[in-house]
Specification:
Length: 183
């Protein structure tokens, strides 16, 4: 079972790795990292104080899960359009980011109370053409960057997660207590 602190550390590591990937991508494609709109492709309800800690984790996990889906789709499109590109620093970093994002999705899922599941909305690629695809991939990477940072920030502000989970007692311990009560 991952702890909240380990999940925060993983989110920060993903954020750092994705920052490097974004730099490599913008340099490779001659794009400015601010050349797309400020809004995210992935959206969830605002993480206000009215939401419980478990609801916040649930929505963050949904956003990360949707980012993973979009990143997989971006990788598929990119590899289909540029199949002959040799493996370079960008492709290695892209693989690292994808693996870390997958692990962060799993890690946040294990923090959920009783397997709760939420959904996130995502805008899909609508324009056609190589340049539109490049801008969309840039936006996907920016979303991974945004949601990994938002996950780290939000988890750090939440109370201890152990208090949110129902406590489990081992069966043997329960039997010993029952025997003591009978005596």
């Amino acid at each position: 079972m991952p702890s909240k602190d380990k999940t925060v550390a993983l989110a920060k590591l993903l954020h750092r790795d994705c920052t490097q990937l974004l730099d490599l991508y913008t340099a490779r494609e001659s794009l400015m990292s601010n050349s797309v709109s400020e809004s995210q492709l992935v959206s969830i309800p605002p993480l206000t104080s009215q939401l419980s800690p478990s609801e916040k984790i649930c929505f963050l996990q949904a956003a990360l899960r949707k980012c993973l889906h979009l990143l997989d789709k971006a990788i598929t499109h990119e590899d289909a359009i540029f199949p002959e590109r040799p493996e370079d620093e960008y492709s290695k970093q892209r693989k690292t980011v994808r693996e870390r994002l997958n692990y962060l999705v799993s890690s946040t899922e294990r923090l959920l109370v009783e397997g709760k599941r939420c959904d996130a909305e995502a805008k899909d690629l609508v324009d056609s053409g190589v340049f539109a695809l490049k801008k969309w991939i840039l936006q996907v990477l920016q979303d991974v960057l945004y949601w990994s940072n938002k996950t780290a920030e939000t988890l750090q502000t939440l109370p201890a997660l152990k208090a949110m989970k129902p406590t489990r007692r081992r069966r043997a311990a329960g039997k010993k207590e029952a025997r003591k009560l009978r005596k």
